[in-house]
Design goal:
The chain is mainly alpha-helical. Helices cover 61% and strands 5% of the residues.
């Protein structure tokens, strides 16, 4: 046991009676709040009104939570949807699936872009910057909850999760940290790439990199993690890996699309398009 990290962090920051504030909730919310400030900077640099962010934030919150919640039950506990569908919207809302959140966000942003007369890929290419950062926050929240733990290991940086009674006896891979650090590096990489070219960023480039990076590494990290549900023990690859494969393929498609069309004028978010989006937003606010 000597040399391993003893992880005995209380998931609650403080509590008053039955009401409590948890690290996970704080980090989850921080992902949206910090992300909004980053998107405000991006919008200013590219000539869009910050008022467009109000509906964008609402879209992101709803589609992330609903997509992640439905994804968890659809992919990991489908029997709940059949036997007790109200559990999906019933507290304590345990169970969120990142693959479901990804699907929900992409669908939500499609309708957002359509309503605002904006280029869908332009919006998504910017959003993935802050989604990567939010992914880091969420995995840190998992760490504070002592959940999504890794497999038993003897590496010197192994964690002993004393508050997770199911996996408390042996040192394990801090799989949450692996994914958190990967997401943080990706956030800086995507922001640097956007900052270098801004409006000249090929449409779909950042989205393609995001999907390949996040779900490619997710496929690898799953080898270091305990399975979430029992039926995965019978599979060659667990559900997280299976769901990551189409996401990686989709990322490759977007990457190829971006390089193929990088020199075409119609794939640049021009001042004219920004002006149209701002006009529609102003009309919406007035009404």
């Amino acid at each position: 046991m000597f040399g391993y990290i003893i992880w005995d962090v209380n998931p609650e920051i403080f509590s008053i009676g039955s009401f409590s504030i948890r690290w996970y909730g704080l980090l989850f919310a921080s992902g949206f709040l910090v992300g909004q400030r980053i998107m405000a900077h991006i919008f200013r640099k590219e000539g869009l009104k910050e008022t467009l962010l109000d509906s964008l934030l609402l879209t992101m919150v709803i589609t992330t939570v609903v997509g992640a919640r439905l994804g968890h039950f659809l992919f990991y506990e489908p029997e709940v949807l059949l036997n007790n569908p109200l559990q999906v919207i019933t507290p304590p809302f345990a169970g969120l699936a990142s693959h479901g959140a990804t699907i929900g966000i992409l669908l939500g942003l499609y309708f957002y872009a359509r309503a605002k007369k904006m280029n869908f890929l332009w919006v998504v290419d910017r959003i993935v910057i802050v989604v990567a950062l939010a992914g880091c926050f969420i995995r840190m929240g998992n760490l504070m909850n002592s959940e999504i733990v890794g497999k038993v290991t003897d590496v010197p940086w192994a964690f002993v999760f004393t508050r997770n009674f199911e996996f408390t006896q042996y040192p394990r891979h801090p799989a949450q940290l692996y994914e958190a650090m990967a997401c943080l590096v990706l956030c800086f990489l995507l922001f640097w790439m956007w900052n270098k070219r801004k409006t000249q960023t090929p449409q779909g480039l950042l989205l393609g990199i995001f999907l390949i990076w996040v779900f490619g590494l997710r496929f690898v990290f799953e080898f270091f993690k305990e399975n979430q549900v029992a039926f995965e023990n019978e599979l060659q690859f667990n559900m997280g890996q299976i769901l990551s494969i189409p996401a990686i393929v989709l990322g490759i498609v977007f990457l190829a699309y971006a390089f193929k069309n990088k020199d075409k004028e119609q794939f640049i978010f021009t001042d004219k398009l920004a002006e149209e989006a701002n006009r529609i937003d102003s009309t919406t606010v007035k009404s």
